[in-house]
Amino acid sequence: MGIHWAEPGAKAVGEYQLSALPYVTSSMLVDEETLEIRFKRLTKFVIVRNRVTGAATPADCVLAVGFTEHGVKGDVNAVPVPATGSFSGRNYIKLDVGESLSVDVRVSRLFLSNSNSGLANNKLPFEVFAGLTDISADKQLLITGSHGYEGVG
Question: Which of 44, 64, 83, 119 could make an SS bond with 113 (beta carbons 3.0 to 4.6 A apart)?
Answer without folding.
Answer: 64
